[in-house]
Amino acid sequence: MKKLKCAVIGTGYLGRFHAEKYAGLADCELVAVVDIDEVAAQTVADKHGSAALTSYQSLLGNVDAVSIVVPTTLHYRVAKDFLNAGAHVLVEKPITVTVAEADELIALAKAKQRVLQVGHLERFNPAIIGLDREEKPLFIEAHRLAPFNPRANDVSVVLDLMIHDIDIILALVDSEIDRIDASGTPVLTEGIDIANVRLLFKNGCVANVTASRISMKLERKMRLFRPSSYVSVDFQNRVLTQHRTGSKEMFPGIPEIETEETVFESGDALLAEIQHFVNCIHTGENPLVSGSAGRRALATAIKIGELLHTNRPIK
User: Fold this and answer.
1) Which of 38, 115, 131, 181 is within CB 3.0–4.6 Å of 88 for a Cys-Cys bond?
2) CA 264, CA 128: separation in Å to the nearest integer?
């Protein structure tokens, strides 16, 4: 199989890990890394034996696939340039700043017959991959809490953290949203630092989602209540706990509850994500997190952001 010529655009905190994964794949050749910070690019390039560039234009038409790991405001422009040049694109979340930009990238990828994948990393967490999809959830509760990190405060907590759970919930429920209630407040930054959202879907499912970037602890959990089961997904510790109604009775007329807990070994979700991207390029399959999935999560996050701005507390 011919090696894919790959490049990583952006060598910040996450970009350097993208470069590491491509460099380690037998069917990929990391030909270049790009960053406006020449020292940052050179440091990553030296580690993996690739070229270091401060501009990506010379790569257009000369690489098969790219990871775009630059600030969100640049996603659209960079992804559009590479798709037009015939490259497959893995763009970090959120896909773009606006829904219109996402729509244009999706249409362009389709016209060029290129893979457009969005980097919603939690989709490759083994705890969510191990969840059976036989039953649709009736109620979902999600908590994604983190201590303050100045690295990602250029966007609200919705686009930074909550969008992970929004993406997963939309995929699990697979129904149109009927109504959104949202409240939140800034605490340490000018943006929203903690938010709670209630999503009511047309199929009757309700999701209660909380995200905070000002917590004293790390927590990434989702609980799903289904017709005959209750499931807890611990993303942080990779634990999937499933409680189901059994065939026996614990009281007359009341079925017993059977519990199964699976603790997954420490995996590499980013490697799994990039391997999936590469496999989709080779096979022509649609990615697990397509441009359309990224667009759906973005549109929901934007609507939540608008509601949070409207409901912002008066100081």
Assistant:
1) 115
2) 10
Closest by alpha carbon to 165, among 198, 232, 210? 210
Q: What is the length of the chain? A: 315
> Side chain identity at 101, as an amino acid letter?
E
Residue ranges in the chain whose pLDDT is less than 50:
314-315
Identify which of 220, 222, 153 has the alpha carbon closest to the alpha carbon of residue 188. Answer: 153
Q: Which of 296, 298, 310, 306 is nearest to 97 (CA)?
A: 298
**Residue carrying the six token digits 């907590």:** 157
Entry pTM: 0.92
Per-residue tokens: 220: 């990434």
CA 46 – CA 56 distance, rounded (Å): 18
Calculate the CA dihedral of residues 295, 297, 302, 305 and round it to 10 degrees: -170
Cα end-to-end distance, the chain, whole Å: 61
**Coil, helix or strand for 74?**
helix
Q: Which amino acid is at 51?
A: A
Radius of gyration of the chain (CA): 21
The amino acid that residue 17 corresponds to is: F
- Contacts of residue 226, Cβ cutoff 8 Å, sequence gap at least 6: 135, 136, 137, 138
Residue with tokens 């995200």: 211
pLDDT number for residue 189:
87
Structure tokens at 98: 């606006």
